[in-house]
Design brief:
about 160 residues; mainly alpha; rod-shaped
Length: about 160
């Protein structure tokens, strides 16, 4: 009878160890789920930022098109003015000076637009690089957590055989 009690005690201890291991594993799964929720939240935030960035790019493109249209309209007006002024030989030098100044102004406006566009693109590139780095960090962390969890599961002892 003593041997039976000893075996029962060993079974109880093994059961308690397995219960503790199961509880640790469940806690690890809960932490993993929490981290996955955080990763999902970050992904949603990244998507939102990308949508905002796309919208800003569209707005910038629209402003550039409007600027191009205005410049073309200005060029047409200058050409029409040039034709009218060409008829008046005495004022031709003034017209040339005016046209040069208008061209310089147009070039300055275009240069400013291009510079602002380059600044905007650099900022968006930086933001995109930050987002990609966050995604990579999250991916690497998730992989490391999964590997650690699988290593813990692999170390668990096999379940005791049931007596028939």
């Amino acid at each position: 009878m003593e041997r039976g009690e000893e075996l029962m005690e060993l079974n109880r201890e093994a059961f308690d160890r397995n219960t503790e291991a199961f509880e640790r594993m469940m806690a690890a799964f809960d932490r993993f789920d929490g981290r996955m929720d955080e990763t999902d939240r970050r992904m949603e935030e990244t998507d939102r930022r990308m949508e905002e960035s796309d919208q800003r790019m569209k707005e910038s493109d629209q402003r550039m098109k409007e600027s191009d249209r205005r410049i073309e309209e200005s060029d047409r007006r200058i050409e029409a003015f040039d034709r009218r002024m060409g008829e008046s030989r005495g004022e031709k030098d003034d017209l040339k000076t005016f046209i040069r100044e208008m061209n310089l102004r147009s070039e300055k406006v275009i240069g400013d637009l291009l510079r602002r566009g380059d600044e905007f693109m650099a900022e968006e590139r930086k933001r995109t690089d930050e987002i990609v780095a966050e995604l990579r960090d999250g991916r690497d962390e998730r992989r490391a957590q999964t590997a650690a969890l699988l290593a813990v599961v692999d170390r668990l002892p096999p379940p005791p055989a049931q007596a028939a």
